[in-house]
Prior knowledge:
This is ATP-dependent RNA helicase RhlE. With about 425 residues, this protein is an alpha/beta fold. The chain has two domains: about 5-210, P-loop containing nucleotide triphosphate hydrolases (Rossmann fold); about 220-380 and about 385-424, 3-Layer(aba) Sandwich (Rossmann fold). The chain has 15 helices and 15 strands. It has helices at about 10-20, 30-40, 55-65, 85-100, 115-125, 135-140, 160-165, 170-175, 195-200, 235-240, 255-270, 280-295, 325-335, 355-365, 400-410, and strands at about 45, 75-80, 105-110, 125-130, 155, 185-190, 205-210, 220-225, 250, 275, 300, 315-320, 345-350, 370-375, 420-424. α3 crosses α4. The protein starts with 11 loop residues before the first helix and ends with a strand.
Amino acid sequence: xxxxxxxxxxxxxxxRALEAQNITxxxxxxAQAIPHAMNGRDVMGLAQTGTGKTNAFGLPLVSQMxxxxxxxxxxxxxxxxxxxxxxxxxxxxxxLLLLVKGTPMKVGLVVGxxxxxxxxxxxxxxxxxxVATPGRLLDLLDRRALTLAEAHFLVLDEADQMLDMGFxxxxxxxxxxxxxxxxxMLFSATMPKQMEEIAQSYLVKxxxxxxxxxxxxxxxxxxxxxxxxxxxxxxxxxxLLDGHRDDLALVFGRTKHGMEKLARMLEKSGFAVxxxxxxxxxxxxxxxxxxFKRGDVRVLVATDVAARGLDIPEVRHVYNYxxxxxxxxxxxxxxxxxxxxxxxxxxxxxxxxxxGELKDIQKVMKRDIPVASGTPWERIAPPQGQGAKPAxxxxxxxxxxxxxxAQQRRRSRGGQGRGxxxxx
Length: 424
């Protein structure tokens, strides 16, 4: 493995920019991808979030664009970076701005939830690197606010999530507006079948680099699951959050309305909390994230808009208040902790109706999640003449504390059943 960034052939300006950020050693994905990209090859990179992908494409992108002469023409873009969410796009822009600091290069951002007219006006002056979400980029292209005819560098980051979010048609349309002579870098955490179509449309004889098998979470994340009825989740969440009020915690759920309601209830319980989801404007989402980074907010409640791209090393705890429908999203959610070499905890709540999601998640990870309380919601064979009842929660919907009392009863009968540290 390459020991230093200097070995990768990066220019002195970028070496100084990395030194200013105290970044000294390339990560595996950077060491593998950067040499190919510096040689002008297309790159397909497979790696989980938190492995340094932004610099893996950002460093060779900026390095090559620094060699371009003159300024970009009005309404043109020289390099395009596509990302699935506003948060990830903003994070990419922030990192690229650090890399181009002290140069005349301009890094623009176009995402939903912000003024379309203001974005169009900024693009009129020409842009070196544009970071964009596909939907907003198409809005601006339809308005003829920019052209992609001069975009000879293209990056697709978190491409699998763009497919999950239904951007396949947008990507096809954008591909048709780009020059055929270009360098393309595609990065993804997983490789679904449809990704092959995207790869064939965008890449030409790419160098394929991969670190960490798809579906494998960071080794330093301590995972556990609580088998608990839906109605008991809020009480357990309050109890667990109360045990580490000084730490930063992310709480994930499925729906915008559900997470907004959860944030209000946690706030009433005295927690410093904020929420980000699709119903929030870009300004609201950014203010919530900044407050969370500063520590003014200790609990951030979110939908999967925050499952990728948030790089906040101080996050110690990730709660899956509701399990995701897409099993890979679990891996991305818990990847928000144990970053930059730190430890982290991932706590999942599983109601009876979520057992299918849990099994899919464990199948993707190729491992079982240790049980913290309760027992799996499997239907067990009933005694003769009686109806079946769910294990782990008593008959029907468990009463408050039912999961724990059930566990205590099993222990008093000789330790039967699973406890903390044992696999589901």
